[in-house]
Write a sequence for this structure.
């Protein structure tokens, strides 16, 4: 459920931690953690906050979008999965999508299309759906990327979610181009 100031105040209570402070504490814990499982849990928690427009300003203020992109470069598949999940959850917002794009996020998202982890591929397809626009289409709609997405669209027997996300992407971004 999406949050607003009133709902947040009701949920936090008189003595609760304000959202910005809580998210800052999560970021600090992620940055200071040497334990992979703890880091995975923290990034997954942060990715869950990324779907709610109420948090977008906080995420930008705390450079969480960049943190998600950093996670995609990690060798740990769980961190990649939760990082791309955070990107996917947040990039429906045009301002977030611009930041992700300006920080070199498109090649990172595209590389997630080849992940052995199903959630990672789903998140990458969803993120590309929102990241593709007039200013990014040249980078995203390269023949090799469109070919891979076409293969996902045809793979309904393997994964309905891959197929549906890929078909939605192709309908929105490719059918009008080709």
């Amino acid at each position: 459920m999406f949050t607003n100031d009133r709902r947040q105040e009701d949920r936090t209570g008189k003595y609760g931690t304000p959202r910005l402070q809580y998210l800052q504490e999560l970021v600090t814990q992620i940055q200071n953690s040497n334990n992979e499982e703890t880091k995975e849990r923290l990034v997954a928690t942060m990715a869950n906050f990324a779907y709610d427009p109420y948090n977008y300003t906080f995420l930008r203020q705390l450079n969480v979008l960049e943190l998600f992109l950093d996670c995609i470069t990690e060798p740990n598949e769980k961190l990649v999965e939760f990082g791309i999940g955070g990107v996917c959850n947040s990039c429906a917002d045009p301002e977030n999508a611009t930041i992700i794009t300006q920080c070199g996020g498109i090649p990172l998202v595209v590389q997630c299309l080849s992940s052995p982890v199903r959630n990672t591929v789903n998140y990458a397809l969803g993120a590309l759906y929102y990241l593709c626009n007039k200013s990014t289409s040249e980078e995203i709609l390269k023949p090799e990327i469109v070919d891979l997405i076409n293969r996902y669209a045809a793979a309904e027997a393997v994964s309905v979610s891959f197929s549906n996300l890929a078909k939605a992407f192709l309908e929105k971004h490719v059918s009008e181009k080709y």
User: Anything to note?
Assistant: The mean pLDDT is 91. Residues 30 and 38 are 8 Å apart (CA to CA). The longest helix spans residues 160-174. The chain is about 70% helix and 0% strand.
